[in-house]
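Much of our argument rests on the idea that a fold can be written as discrete symbols. Part of our work consisted of pairing the sequence of a single chain with a tokenised description of its backbone. The amino acid sequence and the backbone structure tokens for this protein are reproduced below.
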Amino acid sequence: MNDGIARIFVGFDSKEVVAYHVLAQSIIERSSIPVVFSPIVLSNLDGIFTRERNPLQSTEFSFSRFLVPYLSNYEGWSIFMDCDMLARADIAELWKLRDDRYSAMCVKHDYQPKIETKFLGQTQTKYEKKNWSSMILFNNAKCHALTKDYVNTATGLQLHQFKWLESDDQIGEVPVTWNYLVNEYDYRSDAQLVHFTDGGPYFDEYRNDDYSDEWFAMRDRMLYVQQK
């Protein structure tokens, strides 16, 4: 793998299609290095991802995200991120944080969600390491435990709490600005990757949340075409 190219897997959900495209545009506009995008779409994973939908999962990619090392052939590094995010800085800065001492790296959130219900009326589940898995840098060669069979059969907590690693010492820490939780955290002008975890601005009830004006501006640029 060419380490000079950031390989980015993004969770794709049919209920919020626009989110993927706006996130990708925000990364493209600000990146100083080449990027390769792979949307994780369930209909593209026939025969690979076979587990039944869990009634507690809020997105279609809740568990399929853990196929990233498998889909990367356990080579090099890959980034996974939820689609309900917006890049406000150069993704090359995040890519530079890769540290081969670790099997995976993420923002180690330590918080209790402020709300009980999030977008589309879904229950806001609470568990240890909440939102750690919403942005992960995978050191794919050290993630062989995430086989196709394991991802299809492990419990949600085994996956989201990184139980597939021998210990938490194998998880490197990324600055909180690279997965900054909108509404859960106070506004920060230096947030580099904001995460609309409660609900994106494309849902009417969240259209006035922090950073939403930037999201709509990016959506407009994503729709841009030069006319004659």
In short: The chain has a mean pLDDT of 92.
